[in-house]
């Protein structure tokens, strides 16, 4: 089955929205802290069972998929016709939006992975020798911020795809005009 630009729009937006939803749910379900249990010279932190790590990873996976589909959709040969990359990279607005989309995707990945990994590390490292420990969890707000940035990144990938599609149409229109003028 050949992919169309419309199918790529739908795939990129769907993956971006799923990443957003999983990230927001992960932020909402994340516990503020664990329960401290005093022992002999140590504090043992007991964390309630939650799905923050799994939801954070799902959000990251959907963000990565959205970024991969977004980037590959720009250079995909739709209807079996490809254009040189130099034609796309000649457009200043395309290059700017491409760099912004890459940057936002990377920042969203960092904001999703940082609390997910740190939350995962808190669970096995639950014995603290500082008796004033309050059983920390991952920083609050990072998952939610990453979720919003993942939605933003999918929208920037859509803008890039629209600009690439316009450049593609112009390229083939110019090629058709050059072909007609030779006759």
TrEMBL record:
Pfam families documented for this protein: DUF1218
Highest taxon, organism lineage: Eukaryota
Matching InterPro entries: DEAL/Modifying_wall_lignin1/2, DESIGUAL
Listed transmembrane segments: 53-76, 88-114, 142-164
Protein keywords: Membrane, Signal, Transmembrane, Transmembrane helix
GO CC, alphabetical: endomembrane system
Bilayer disposition of the protein: Multi-pass membrane protein
Subcellular location: Endomembrane system
Main subcellular localisation: membrane
Family assignment from sequence similarity: Belongs to the DESIGUAL family.
Official protein name in the record: Uncharacterized protein
Source organism per UniProt: Solanum lycopersicum (Tomato)
Gene: LOC101253819
């Amino acid at each position: 089955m050949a992919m169309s630009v419309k199918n790529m729009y739908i795939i990129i937006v769907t993956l971006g929205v799923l990443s957003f939803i999983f990230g927001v749910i992960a932020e909402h379900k994340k516990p503020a802290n664990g329960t401290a249990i005093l022992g002999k010279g140590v504090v043992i932190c007991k964390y309630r069972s939650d799905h923050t790590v799994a939801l954070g990873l799902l959000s990251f996976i959907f963000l990565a998929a959205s970024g991969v589909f977004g980037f590959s959709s720009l250079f995909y040969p739709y209807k079996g016709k490809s254009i040189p990359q130099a034609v796309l990279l000649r457009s200043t607005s395309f290059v700017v939006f491409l760099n912004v989309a890459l940057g936002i995707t990377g920042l969203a990945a960092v904001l999703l992975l940082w609390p997910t990994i740190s939350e995962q590390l808190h669970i096995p490292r639950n014995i603290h020798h500082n008796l004033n420990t309050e059983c920390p969890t991952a920083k609050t707000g990072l998952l939610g911020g990453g979720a919003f940035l993942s939605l933003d990144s999918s929208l920037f990938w859509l803008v890039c795809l629209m600009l690439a599609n316009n450049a593609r149409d112009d390229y083939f229109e110019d090629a058709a005009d050059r072909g007609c003028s030779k006759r």
